[in-house]
Every structure is written in structure tokens, then in C-alpha cells.
Design a protein that fits this description.
Layout (H helix, E strand, L loop, with lengths): L20 H15 L2 H4 L4 H15 L5 H13 L4 H14 L1 H26 L8 H29 L3 H16 L5 H17 L4 H29 L5 H48 L11 H24 L5 H15 L4 H13 L6 H11 L9 H12 L4 H30 L3 H28 L16 H16 L4 H22 L2
């Protein structure tokens, strides 16, 4: 595959393209040229990242088309790990190959990771309390971020919604995510949405439902006709033979009419079955686009990668459980490796889980955790870089090197997702053309977009932090933060304000509020 054209052409992909040393140099340069700045400018978290990827790789560079983008979005959301980071890695893997994809991952994740490492070093050297101006700045960042994510959720929903079913699944996914929260819950929701889409697109329930409706309708019609006959008979002028002939005619016509109608109903059923078959064929054309298979690796190699990961996961967990005297850094690595393996739903889900695996172990204080939580919303790149911050603080508090702790946190949180998604891409090349797979991903995609609204709500509920409530409280408790959130949303939707500018604007408004409050002596 040459690099002269930006147009994606899967028919030219061969495995040898990814190991051709003559092309490694140009591909690495292309990866660097197109990705070097994204780790510095991609603010707003996963929902905004997905929009950025669509604008760049689908609309501008044409590295993939809309169909492949939606497939990758569904895959990256349906499996564990950092959703936007996996999406970025897979797009570069499909276009440029493995070495450039690894380079793109480094360019994407390292700027934010280094920033969180520096923040951890700074936090480890401050006192127990922070100035109120800092809390105000962090609250402003949170409020602006909520507006950015809400806008991204709306825009992604507009792309995911293709009919009434997907519209309903987006709503139900958001509603279910708001009502309950557990580690197993999000993957179950997305799996259920995929099953619903398959049942709907294959029309497995259409036949039984139509049969019941028709049978009930026929009985009602026959009952109505009989009642009409009785009324007609009562209105006849009394007369022996005439009345008898009317009764006979009424019974005969009613019986014949009923038989004709039953016969006509059977013919109608045959026509309905033909219509259903035609609609199924049309649905198949709609659900399964006529695209070529993606070939990154064989399905056997993909399966081998996934099996190897499972073996590594079992080994790490067994060592963690059977040897209680493991060093602190190994326990840190194993906890984050477990988190990176079981997190479904991306960045919005990783935050509460890391609280359980780090703060509950008394490795990092609740205050330091919440400071990092507020600042990660204003950092570019993946939210999973929060693990670098926590790993660094854990190592420093335990008397180890902060650099080593940050590196272990980075490796443990990202490795499971990238490892499994790389193997999944090998399997995907073999099954992506199957009709039920395409149909199920349509439902998974809709539910995943709905869960983004859940992230908006959860950040909204803890966005305002101050001295008296450093654990966070709802932004709705102060109209100022509501205005900041609305301004961030309106600025992006109506005036094209970029997420970094909106974050800076939110931070400034937070400081403005602090100045006003201090001036009034509150």
C-alpha cells in the first residue's frame, strides 16, 4: 500500500505490507506527522476523542470509511480497556501497520502521562490543604469539561442513531447507566443491546407477533359481522317464509363469507410472508455493507494473542493472591493490571474503580486522589493516564522511586486493552462480514453512546470541590457552574470553540468566581 494517496483501499492490504522494511521509514514518518500533536491538543476525554478521530481519520484523511469507523467504535467500547486509546491504535494499525501504530500510541499517550507524573511530584510536596483559588480553578475545569462531553455525546448520538431501534437503545443505555453502577453492569448492557438488535434485524419476533395479531383480528371481525347480521334480522318485517329465508341467507352468507374471509386471510398470510422475505433482504443489504475484509493478521494469530493474554492475567492474579508478602510495587502493578482488564466503558468508569484499588489500600490519600481527578479532566490524551499519577504517588509514599511507580502504572493500565484489541482485530478480519455480527454491533454502538450520557451525569455530580467538601458535590448547587457548563456546550456547538479553549475559559471563570466570593467576604 503506497502512501501517495490518503484514500483507504482495503483491497491492497497484505500481511507483507506490515513487515516490509523498505516501507517502515515512510510509514513511521507518516505516523509521526499525523499524530505528533494529538497528545497535546485532545482535551475532553473519550467522548470528545472519538469525535476528533472521526473528523481527522474519516472526514479529512480518509484512512477509514464511516462503516469501519462505527465497527471500530463498537469493538473498542464493547471490550475492556481505554476506549479512545484503542480506537486510535487500531486506526493507525489498519492504515500503517504495527510499528507505526506503537509510535502513534506513544505520541498519543505520553504527553498527558508526563504531565500527570509531574503533577504527582508536585502534589507529594505540598501540605494537607490547598488554597481556595486552586479549588475554584479545578471546579471551573470540571464544569467546562462536562459541557464538552455533553456536546460530544449529542454529536455521537446523531451518528449512532439510524432508526427508531437505535434511538431507543441510546435512551435505554443512558437511563440504565444512570440508575445503577457496577463492574459487570456496562458490558451486560452492551451485550443485551447487541442481542436486541440481532433479534430485531433478523425479525425473529415479527412472525409470531403478526400471527397472533391476525388471529385476534379475525376473531374480532367475525364477531362484528355476526352482530351486524343479528341487527339486520331484528329489523326484518315479521313473516314466516321471508324471515326464515333471511335467517337461512344470513347464516349461509355469514358462513360463506367467513369461509371466504378465512381463505382470503390465508392468501394474505402468504403475501405477508413474501413481504417479510423482501424486507429481510432489504434489511440485510442495509445491515451488511458491501465492503472488503480487513486483513491485519490471521484469525489464528489473533486467537493466540488473546489466549496468551489470558495466561498472563491468570499468572499475575495467582501470584497476587497466593503470595501475601509481595512488594508494594508488585501489588500496585497487579491491581492496575486487573483494573485495565475488567474496566468496560473507558475513562468515565476507570476513576471510581481506581479509587477502590488505590485509595482503599491506603496508598494515596482521598484528597490527593480528588485533586488528580479534577486535573485529569483538563489534561489532554487518555484519562487512563490517571494511573500514572496514582502509581507515582504510591511509589513515593512507599519510599520507592516515583519514576518506577509511574512507569508501572502506565504499563499495567494500558497493556491489557491494547493486547486484547490487537488480537481481536485478527479475529475481526474473519467475522466482520457475518450478518449477525454487523447487526449486533449496531446495537452495541447505540448502547455505548448512551453510556456517555452516564459519564456526563457522574462528572456533574462531583464537579464542584472546595475546602469544606473536597470529595466533590454537584455543579447544580451553584448557578455559576451551571452557566460555565452551558457556556462550554454552546461555545462548541454554535461557535466552534475548541475543547482546549473551553477548558481554559472554564478555569478562568472559576478564578473569577473565587475573586467575587472573596471580595464579598463569603
Amino acid at each position: 500500500m503506497g502512501l501517495k494517496s490518503n484514500r483507504w483501499d482495503p483491497t491492497t492490504w497484505r500481511l507483507k505490507d506490515f513487515v516490509n522494511l523498505d516501507e517502515i521509514g515512510p510509514r513511521m514518518w507518516t505516523s509521526f506527522k499525523e499524530n505528533w500533536y494529538m497528545g497535546f491538543t485532545s482535551f475532553g476525554g473519550p467522548p470528545v476523542h472519538f469525535k476528533i478521530f472521526h473528523d481527522k481519520y474519516v472526514s479529512k484523511l480518509h484512512w477509514i470509511d464511516e462503516t469501519v469507523y462505527q465497527e471500530l467504535f463498537s469493538i473498542c467500547q464493547a471490550f475492556s480497556g481505554p476506549g479512545s486509546t484503542k480506537m486510535h491504535y487500531c486506526i493507525n494499525l489498519l492504515r500503517l501497520g504495527l510499528p507505526p501504530a506503537i509510535l502513534s500510541f506513544a505520541l498519543w499517550s505520553l504527553p498527558g502521562a508526563l504531565g500527570m507524573f509531574g503533577l504527582a511530584i508536585g502534589i507529594s510536596n505540598v501540605g494537607e490543604t490547598l488554597p481556595r483559588a486552586v479549588y475554584a480553578l479545578l471546579s471551573g475545569l470540571n464544569a467546562a469539561t462536562v459541557g464538552i462531553i455533553a456536546l460530544a455525546a449529542v454529536q455521537l448520538a446523531q451518528k449512532a442513531i439510524t432508526d427508531k431501534l437505535t434511538r431507543l437503545l441510546v435512551y435505554l443505555g443512558a437511563a440504565a447507566g444512570l440508575l445503577y453502577n457496577a463492574l459487570w453492569y456496562f458490558p451486560v448492557l452492551m451485550l443485551a443491546a447487541g442481542v436486541v438488535a440481532v433479534v430485531w434485524d433478523f425479525r425473529w419476533l415479527h412472525g409470531p407477533v403478526i400471527w397472533v395479531v391476525k388471529r385476534v383480528g379475525k376473531k374480532e371481525k367475525v364477531r362484528g359481522r355476526d352482530e351486524e347480521r343479528e341487527v339486520e334480522l331484528r329489523e326484518q318485517v315479521p313473516g314466516g317464509s321471508g324471515a326464515e329465508r333471511e335467517v337461512v341467507r344470513g347464516e349461509g352468507d355469514g358462513g360463506k363469507e367467513t369461509r371466504d374471509r378465512v381463505s382470503g386471510g390465508d392468501n394474505g398470510d402468504g403475501a405477508s410472508q413474501q413481504q417479510l422475505r423482501r424486507e429481510e433482504e432489504e434489511a440485510e443489504e442495509r445491515v451488511v455493507p458491501r465492503t472488503h475484509q480487513i486483513s491485519v493478521m490471521s484469525w489464528k494469530s489473533g486467537l493466540a494473542l488473546i489466549v496468551a493474554f489470558l495466561a498472563s492475567f491468570i499468572a499475575v492474579m495467582l501470584t497476587r493472591g497466593l503470595i501475601p508478602t509481595n512488594p508494594l510495587l508488585y501489588r500496585l502493578f497487579s491491581n492496575l493490571y486487573l483494573a485495565g482488564t475488567i474496566i468496560f466503558g473507558g475513562g468515565p468508569v476507570v476513576i471510581p474503580l481506581l479509587r477502590e484499588y488505590i485509595v482503599a489500600e491506603n496508598w494515596v490519600s482521598p484528597r490527593d486522589f480528588l485533586i488528580g481527578l479534577a486535573l485529569i479532566q483538563g489534561f489532554p490524551g487518555p484519562n487512563f493516564n490517571f494511573a500514572v499519577y496514582l502509581g507515582t504517588l504510591t511509589a513515593i509514599n512507599g519510599g520507592y522511586s516515583g519514576v518506577l511507580g509511574g512507569f508501572l502504572g502506565f504499563l499495567a493500565i494500558f497493556l491489557p486493552g491494547l493486547w486484547t484489541v490487537h488480537g481481536t482485530m485478527g479475529l475481526w478480519s474473519a467475522i466482520r462480514g457475518w450478518r449477525w455480527v454487523k447487526s449486533s454491533l449496531r446495537g452495541v454502538n447505540a448502547a455505548a453512546v448512551g453510556l456517555i450520557y452516564t459519564a456526563v451525569y457522574r462528572l456533574w455530580q462531583i464537579g464542584w470541590i472546595d475546602e469544606g467538601f473536597s470529595s466533590g458535590k454537584s455543579l447544580a448547587d451553584d448557578p455559576w457552574w451551571v452557566v460555565v457548563t452551558a457556556g462550554s456546550y454552546v461555545g462548541g456547538a454554535w461557535f466552534g470553540v475548541e475543547p482546549p479553549v473551553a477548558c481554559i475559559f472554564g478555569a478562568v471563570l472559576g478564578l473569577v468566581r473565587y475573586g467575587v466570593v472573596e471580595a464579598q467576604g463569603y
